[in-house]
Amino acid sequence: MNVHQVSDMQTPIGEILKAANASGVVIQSDDQEQYAVLPLDDELIDFLLERNPKFIEECGQIRQRMMSGEYYSQDEVERLLTENDAEAR
After folding, report:
1. Taking the CB of residue 20, how many other CB atoms lie within 10 A of it?
2. Are 30 and 59 found together in one domain?
3. What's the pLDDT band for 53 if we cut at 50, 70, 90?
4. What predicted TM-score, i.e. pTM, was given to this entire model?
5. Does 23 share its domain with 49?
6. Less Cβ around it within 10 Å: N or C end of the chain?
């Protein structure tokens, strides 16, 4: 990953994206913090989702609803569909 020095805060985003290419880039400016621009891939998306507080909260709520019986597992749905199909015949 390379480092792209930005001296003008009005630098067009297109210039930064060109500097990022397929491997990503660290953007550095004298008076700002450093930022990384990375291409999205499955691993990065998983990494970001796993650390997203809203996603973590929603997963916890879904888990609680499943444990309380508000949702069916895939196996249960398949069994119910098979039973309904057999009854229809």
Report:
1. 19
2. no
3. very high
4. 0.45
5. no
6. C
- The range of the structural domain enclosing residue 16 comes to 2-37
pLDDT of residue 5: 82
pLDDT at 37: 84
Rg (CA), the chain: 24
Are 46 and 81 part of one and the same domain? yes
For residues 70, 76, 80, 83, the Cα torsion angle rounded to the nearest 10 degrees is: -150
- Tokens 């749905």 belong to residue: 77
- Report the domain count for the chain: 2
Question: In the structure encoding, which two tokens stand for residue 26, read together?
Answer: 């660290």
Burial of 16 (0-12, 13-18, 19+ CB in 10 A): middle
Tell me the residue type at 27. I
CA distance 26 to 12: 16
